[in-house]
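Reading a protein record of the kind used here takes only a little practice. These numbers are not coordinates but entries in a learned vocabulary of local backbone shapes. Here is one such record, which you should read through line by line.
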Amino acid sequence: MTPRSTGLLCAITAVTIFSVQDGISKHLGSSYPPVFITMIRYWGFAAFAMLLASRSPAGLKATTKAGRPWLQTARGVLLAVQIVISIFSFSRVGLAASHSIFAAAPLVVAGLSVLFLGETVGWRRWTAIGVGFIGILLVVNPLHATFDWKIVIPVVATGMFACYSVMTRLASRTDTSMTAFFYTGVAGAVTMTFVGPFYWTNLAPADWVWMFVLCMTGMTGHYLLIRAFDLLDASVVQPISYIQTVLVCLIGVFIFGEVMTANMIAGCAIVIGAGIYTIWREARLGRTPPPAIDPPGTP
């Protein structure tokens, strides 16, 4: 296989694994506290991050030296909290509705980049952002007589992930992606270890198996995604993450019995289209963002 084919295979396999991971998160999140689940996941994630850092050419010591450690730590903590809210959203709002809204993350990132990174967004991308917002309104359906306010949960999670992505762009100006990945895992694990024990719950034996699978899918998915970014440009890999949205929606419908209405399907399609255009436009202008590594709803 050519490097490009290998990279595409790694990316597609990674997002497929992340889709399964989100399904397991919903299963566990429906019975156990999301903070507790996130803590266990992050223990595995941190161990994996330290292993990769120790095996990197720079070594563990050099990898931990960040130009702005406070920024790296803050983004790691923010993602950990976002994961907790995402799992809560999966169990309360549903996989399909949550990921339909998560798909808007690149659009929110484009808007925030103007405010915090000083980037210029032309009328084409502002139009895509506006169209994407219309798609979100179709998914949320705020004018419906039985509007469910729980839909605000994935909206908040999307905003938090967009902030995390902007902070990742800012950190990439001084630090390597391996340093960012290390701080993402370790800072998140430390944060969850301070909070998670207060939510400790005895897992059923079968659910310990699911928890183990959850940790293993996270490590495997991240490794494959890192390999994909090593072999392909970010502008090629990032649109593939939208396959996860489709797969998660299918898992939600066929495994968990969720219902996708016509407005949800239309809104999700519009948001995905607008997001892909935004990523493509940034790549064409030479401002392809560095990989945030973590699609919404992971690690």
